[in-house]
Every structure is written in C-alpha cells, then in structure tokens.
Amino acid sequence: MNHHSTGGQPDDAIDIDALLQGLDDIFAANEAPSKAEPYLLNALRIARHADDDAAELSILNELMGFYRSQGRHDDNAPVIERALMLTERMHLEGSEAWLSTLINAATSQRAAGNVDDSERLYLLALKSSDRIFEGNDRRLAALHNNLSMLYSSMGRYSEAEHQLDQALNILEQASVNPAEDIDVASSHSNLALLLLNTPSRTQESLDHAAKALEIYHQGGLETRAHFAAALAAYAQVLAHAGRPADSLPYYERALETIALHYGPNSEYYRTTEANLESVRALIPSPDQAHEAAQDVPAHPDAKDGPRRRIPHDGARPIQHGGKGSDGGGREGSRSITGMELSRAYWERYGKSLLAEGYPDYQGRIAAGLIGHGSECYGFDDAHSRDHDFGPGFCLWLSHEDFSRIGTRLQQDYEALPQEFLGFGPRETSVRARGSGRRVGVFEIGDFFRSITGYEQAPPQDHHAEWLMLDEATLAAATNGEIFADPFGRLSRTRQAFKLMPEDVRLALISKRLGMISQSGQYNLPRMLTRGDGAAAWLCIEQFTSAVSSLVFLLNTPIRAGYLPYYKWSFAALRRLGSRMGTRLPHLFGPLESLMRIASAACFGGHGTAEGEAGSEPAARQAIATIEAVCSEIVTALRQEGLSDSDETFLEWQRPYIEAHIHSADPCLHSI
What we know:
Blueprint: H1 16-28, H2 32-49, H3 53-70, H4 73-89, H5 96-111, H6 115-132, H7 138-153, H8 157-174, H9 182-195, H10 202-218, H11 227-240, H12 244-261, H13 267-280, H14 286-293, E1 296-297, E2 307-308, H15 338-357, E3 366-369, H16 374-377, E4 394-397, H17 399-414, E5 440-443, H18 444-452, H19 463-468, H20 471-478, E6 481-484, H21 489-498, H22 502-530, H23 533-554, H24 557-560, H25 569-577, H26 588-596, H27 598-603, H28 616-639, H29 654-658
Helix pairs in contact: 1-2, 2-3, 3-4, 3-5, 4-5, 5-6, 6-7, 7-8, 8-9, 9-10, 9-11, 10-11, 11-12, 12-13, 12-14, 22-23, 22-28, 23-25, 23-26, 26-28
C-alpha cells in the first residue's frame, strides 16, 4: 500500500471520517442526486494524487453503493473493477477489507442483473468467510442474507430460503436476546416476503412478518429507521393475503418512519407511497378504508386481535414501564443512540426553528453534536442514560452572529419540546450546566475554548502548545457529527485540531515508545522480581495506555482521530481495528489478554479466577505478551518508513523516529 508517512501532513490528505460525515450530510439534506457524485469523485482524485490506496478503496466502495442506488450500472462497472484490482494490489486477500469489497461488488452486480458474476463473488466471499468470521458472526449472517436476495431474484426460492434460514440461525445464536434483536427482526421480514412466492405458505409469511413487528415492539426499537421496512413488509403480506384494508395503517406508519429518517422527498418514501396507493385501489368502499385506518394491532399476528390507536404526529410516544424499563421510568432496552436521537430532534424541530425564525441566518448556522459525552463518540448504550441524555443538539454561530441573535436563539431553543420519541426531558448533570452545558447555542470560538482552552487550533509551528494538549481533550474537540454547516467555519475549526503538526506527531510517537519500553520492558520485570505487585500493576497500566496512544498516532489524527478518555480507550481501539487500512489493527486483543492476567502476574492470582495460584506462569505470559506487542510495533515502524532497525527494545527505536523530525525545537527531541 502506498501512503505518505513523513514530510508533514499533506494539504489534500483524505480524512475518511470527515469524508463520510460530509457524505452523510449530503444525503441528510436530500442533495445526493446532484452533490454526492462530484463530492466522491473529487475525494477520489485527491486520494489518487496522494497515492493513498486505503482511502481510494474506501471511496470506491462508497461510490459503488451510490451508483447502485441510482441504477447507474454502466458507470459502476469500472468502479467495481478498480476496487477489486486494488484489493489485489494491496494484498488484502483474506482480510475483512477484502471481504467487504467482495460483498459490495457482488451486491452491485446483483443490482445490475449480472447474476452469474454476483453469485461468483458472493460464493467466493462465503468460502473465505470461515477464515475471517467466527461461526456466529453477524456479518456472516448478512452475507447469507445477500445471497438469499440474489437467489430470490433468480427464482431459486428454495436456495434463497435456505440462505435466510442460515442467517436467522446465526443471528439467534449470536444474539444476547433474539426476542429484542433488530437483525433477527429483519430476517423474519425477509422470510415473510420470500414466502409470498409460494401461495400455500401465506400463513407462514404472516407469522414471520408479525414476529418481526413483535421484536421491534418488545425491544423498544420502533423509532429505528429499519422499522419502516418491517411495517411495509407486514402491510404487503396482509394485502397479499386478501386483507388490503388491514394493511393501510401499516403502510401509513411506514411512511411516517421513512419521512423522519430519510425525508418525504426520498425514493424510499415515494416507492412506499405508491404501494400504499395501489393497496387503496383494491378497497371497494371508502368507509371501509377509513374504519381500517383507525386501529393497528398492538402485537400483530395472523389472526385478528385487540387493536389500539397509533397517533400519526411523526413523534409517537413510547410506552413506558413494563419489560425493559429502568428505575427512571424510561425504557432501558431502547436501542436508539444519543447521536441518532440528536439528529432526529434536529430534523424534526431544529431545521424549522432556523427556517421560520432566523431565515437571514439559516445559511450561517452550523448544527450537530460534538464534545464531551459517550454519545459524541458513538459509545453510549442504555446504561449511559442516567445523566446528560435526552433530546438536544448544538447550534454554532460566528462571533458576530452570536452577538446579534445568540441570546434570543438560545431562548427559542429552550422553548422546543422537551420530550421527543419517548425520551426527555434531558437529564443534565451538574458539570454539564452553565458554561459546561453540552447542547444549545454556542459561539464557535467559545465552544472550542471550553473544551481545549483554545478558540482555534494553535499555529503549526507552536510545537509546545500542541504537546501540552491532551489527546483526550483533542478527541472531545474533534468527535461527534456535524448535521449541517452551510457556512463551513465550524468544520474548518474542528478540522484544524485534527491537523496535528507532523513533527509533533513524531515527537509523541517517540515519547510513547519510551514509556512502552520503560514501563513494560524494563520496569515490569524488575517490579515482579521485587515482589512489588502494586508497582507491577501500574507498569502494566502505563504500558497499555502508551500502546493505545501509539496506535492512534501511527494511524495519524487526520484519519483515526485521537485516543479518547480512558474508559473509552478499548472501545475506540476495537472500532479503529475494524476499519479498512488500519495500522496495528489487532493490538487491542493482546492488551486485553495482558490486563486479564495482570492480577495473577502481579499478586499471585489468589482470590481471582486466573487459574493458577502462583504468579510465575502468569508473569511469564505477561512478559511474553509485552514482547510480542513490541515486536509488532517494530514491524509497523519499519513498514511506515520511520525506522530501519530490528531492535525490539523500543527505547533504542527513538533516535530513528526523531531523525524524521525537521524542526530543531528542543521540546520535540528527547535528551
């Protein structure tokens, strides 16, 4: 793989996270037909100019999906060919990136009607998946689902059903709770639609479609975007079963869900609306249609049952209490993330607030969610909702605009509905109030100063200031999502904090190598020999932290971001490791193993579940793990062109790293 590793950050470097966020913004604004292609083609040009194969492959996969969604199969053909060629050139065969590209290419060939090529690629992916995925890996289930759709399109319904059965079995085995699992629900919906091809199995089709909706209801998943597909599938099955009047409210609820997540101008909305009108035409009596639209089964099945009214206001309240409720009266099993809730709240209320109340400023105000909080990193779950959770988003203004309308806009923001999609009012901790508040209206410079101490990133030649900025601080300033930024100032300010000077990055890599060596290779064996378990434990903690930081620094902040707050370090390492083209992608595994045996290694294992009572076997394993990690680091340094030394005692690698530092600034060099 070609890449730049020295000489400073190129002006036209590709930040994949920022690229994908920009693409999301285009789709969210329903501007994909006119803006997505030039956006991706420009990014592709930059990646090729930079000889960045990993970035190019990511962009090609996105472009492949876009052309597929537009039905532009002739334009997609060279994109598919180029992507597959890149996987060969990068020697990715057998990797997750290679498998993802195979599946994407197969799906594109399926959409183009090239069923033979599609089947060949799917089967190649399936054959190779055993080496990449474990038996109950959800991605393997997705592959079986894709192959099922291909066979269904070819009229090979028996094979399609077999693939779907395999997918469902994998998902049920992998799931912690299949009765509340959205992927299990999707498989039931797919089976329901497939079985419509066999008239004698209509009852089974109804059962599967009803099971999907039951899972969404049981799991509190009805605000998720995929709920629309389950509703539409159940509606289609009802219409096919000769019950068109019963299908109407499900189609209507599907349209509400689509409008919320994709917009009323999307192709998805128009297709579902056309299906609804087709069903309405099958109903002979308008009175009958009106009566059917009043009620929807609470737990739909093949039989008529009790019905309840679903309000059609686009923000249906979620039932509280009962199974899955937490002590705060909020449904603890809900799967919607804080970021999803924030974006939906912005779409529902934020856009209209600006359009109706501030039309002259609408093109100058940015919106999104950035900063402190697990939801800004995408790591939140049901346990995160005990504080600083609920409907909310950020609005960012320039200094001039904030001085004119900031106070009034904040008042109007606070007047928005406090409850949304069954959540709220927002739970706010003491430290997230006043100047520390996490949502609302902000002046751009004040917002970043509240996080970093700087209104904007330090100049590139202010090395000492960059070195004093903690990585977790920089992570908080550069995380999250921007929903809209028509003026562009917020995006430029945030991006500048990702552009860590190359000399600073190299200096930090050298410092991390020193700490890795000192804590893990030198001090840990000494502390173990002395029998100082507490000191040995701290050595392992320091080693783990330094390695975690090093992984992010080697992947560069512009691409990987920064290592976040300590409690999210491993979540961030796992996510980074799953991305295409990541350097040292699997080190989180050995680090987790090291931490698991730390008790036995440092304190002898007494009172733990480590197995042996003595510390010597665990200590040997800990030291061996550390040496293996250090060896992998040396390989990565050599691959990056930062060192040509085989020395695995990492302190001796530091001069090779610092030889690439151009500045003579003493703060960048070790003594």
